[in-house]
Design a protein that fits this description.
Strand order of the largest sheet: 2-1-3-4
Largest sheet: 4 strands, mixed
Order of helices and strands: HHHHHHHHHHHHHHHHHEHEEEHHHHHH
CATH superfamily of the largest domain: MFS general substrate transporter like domains
Structural class: mainly alpha
Number of strands: 4
Shape: globular
Number of helices: 24
Radius of gyration: 24 Å
């Protein structure tokens, strides 16, 4: 009787099957995760009804980041499993866990139905999603790389990178189709559940495809020789030769990856929809188009790295993003909402307040009320996409918003119950809205003045930067680490970078804007982390193209 290892050697999976099964499962997991990010605005209304609009959006974006925050935990759990038990078992479990959590989100009761229990259940399911995704990428990337010929490793693993685009395409198509078919009111009422529930069918397909796979050749060879690491954590993180590689991967590659990719594909959505007031359907269509274009670019840049090296292709992507983000977002404002850009220039807004009463509105758990007169005024202006300047006022004075020649006095909200505070804030917001309207600030972007082609052009530049960095990344990371601890050592820096740096790009950038009043100030976050990687890549990252993986 032949054992499992003999059968795997006798009937190895074709390269096509390996790539297709790995990419399909990864695409499905990204589909699951992207649904939540794309529906942050709707989620804030469904699960955070007790908060005002700004706090609700911040809480939803924070919850989106919560899924990313738990990815390093998943990387450790499933990385250890992948290095001790095998690559196949680890990423078969991750896809099942991810799919079950996503389907369950579609069945959750709303805040209006069960109150605080609703966001608590949502948080729990997001934690499961993040933990599962933490084990997914490393397994799929390693599995494909350990099967691929050395001279085509970048191209083959590029398909794993493109699966992220395919997942986002699927999520956006389902959301766009559902929104269009039932209208915005019905979609926000109950139709938002459909994209989550559809995941059950995709889950079945992904599990079926992955069940057909055998173990990877490199791990099988290691297992037959009895050389698996008995202590992957200790070997990966307590031995300097491996820990040094983990730190280089994090600072030279993954800081930029998290910052660039999530700024290009997620924060740009938040920026257009919340600050520039572009209709959600238009935003979805723009992101869908650039995401479709991005899919083959990952494979192209992976192929390019097979010919010219991983390091310089990735470095090109980092530098392009570093140079493009600030002018690109300025152009997006002029292309998307020229009326807003003109009003900002023609009639500047000034917040006159006691600096001690203006807090940094950074609230990852969504519990802070931000009740000072300064915070109430700034919160509304930030959510409306209004640039403003800060002017110090005497200590203890109530904040005043000057819009051209008119002034709106804010209100101190401390000491009131929630219902009264909500009424007080609504009154301030109504007065600000009226004053802004009188000064020529548009409530929404004028569809007739939206330069769709211009917006698409800017987003394409961001997309080229993101794909040049991400396309060769899987092969570069796999080639950095020895087989014994590859899954563990690769997965942790990847998910710290994408999870803690990338996942919090939308939330952190929005909070910075709310605090400063400058709608471009949030870009300081992705620009900083990208700059760190540009320098670290030049100084510390070595070329790995063509290296044998059996070490």
């Amino acid at each position: 009787m032949t054992n499992a290892a003999d059968e795997a050697r006798e009937a190895p999976a074709s390269m096509f099957t390996v790539v297709a099964a790995s990419s399909a499962g990864t695409a499905f997991e990204w589909y699951d995760f992207f649904i939540f990010g794309s529906l942050a605005g709707v989620i804030s209304k469904v699960f955070f009804t007790g908060l005002n609009e700004t706090a609700g959006l911040v809480a939803a974006l924070a919850l989106f980041g919560t899924g990313f925050a738990f990815r390093p935990l998943g990387a450790l759990i499933f990385g250890r499993m992948g290095d001790k038990v095998g690559r196949k078992a680890a990423f078969l479990i991750t896809v099942t866990l991810m799919g079950g959590a996503t389907f369950a989100i579609g069945l959750l009761p709303t805040y209006d139905q069960v109150g605080i229990l609703s966001p608590i259940l949502l948080i729990f399911l997001r934690i499961l999603q993040g933990t599962a995704l933490g084990g997914e990428y490393g397994g799929a990337a390693i599995y494909v790389a350990e099967h691929a010929p050395a001279n085509k490793r970048g191209q083959m693993t590029g398909w794993i990178q493109s699966s992220a685009a395919l997942g986002l395409i699927g999520a956006l198509l389902v959301i766009l189709a559902t929104r269009t078919a039932m209208g915005e009111v019905n979609f926000e009422g109950w139709g938002w559940r459909i994209p989550f529930l559809i995941s059950s069918g995709l889950l079945a397909v992904s599990i079926f495809m992955r069940m057909k796979l055998a173990e990877s050749p490199s791990f099988q060879k290691l297992k037959e020789a009895g050389e698996q690491s008995p202590h992957p954590f200790r070997e990966a993180f307590a031995q300097w030769k491996n820990l040094k590689l983990v730190l280089i991967a994090l600072f030279a590659i993954m800081c930029a990856q998290g910052a660039v990719w999530y700024c290009a594909f997620f924060y740009s959505q938040v920026y257009m929809e919340k600050f520039l007031k572009v209709p959600p359907a238009t935003v979805n269509l723009l992101i869908l188009i650039v995401t479709i274009i991005s899919a083959p670019l990952y494979v192209f840049f992976g192929w390019l790295s097979d010919r010219y090296g991983r390091k310089w292709v990735m470095w090109f992507g980092m530098v392009l993003a570093l140079l493009a983000f600030l002018p690109g977002f300025h152009m997006m404002t002029r292309f998307a909402n020229p009326g807003l850009a003109e009003a900002n220039q023609r009639t500047p807004v000034v917040v006159i307040a006691d600096p001690a009463a203006c807090t940094l509105q950074f609230d990852p758990v969504g519990k802070s009320a931000f009740v000072t007169s300064c915070d109430i005024a700034k919160s509304y202006l930030a959510n409306a996409g209004i640039n403003y300047k800060n002017q110090a006022a005497p200590a203890g004075s109530v904040a005043v918003v000057r819009i051209g020649q008119s002034e709106v006095v804010s209100v101190e909200g401390a000491g009131f119950d929630k219902a009264t505070l909500k009424t007080i804030k609504a009154g301030v917001e109504d007065r600000l809205k009226a004053a802004l309207s009188e000064a020529g600030y548009p409530a929404t972007a004028d569809p007739a003045r939206i330069n769709f082609a211009g917006l698409l052009g800017v987003l394409l530049i961001f997309t080229i930067a993101a794909t040049a960095l991400y396309g060769p990344q899987a092969s570069a990371l796999v080639e950095m680490f020895p087989t014994r601890v590859r899954y563990t050592a690769l997965s942790l820096p990847y998910h710290v970078g994408t999870g803690w740096v990338g996942g919090f790009v939308p939330f952190s950038a929005f909070a910075i804007v709310a605090a400063t009043g400058n709608i471009y100030a949030g870009l300081a976050y992705p620009i900083f982390f990208t700059g760190v990687s540009v320098l670290a890549t030049l100084v510390f990252l070595k070329e790995t193209n063509g290296r044998s993986l059996d070490f």
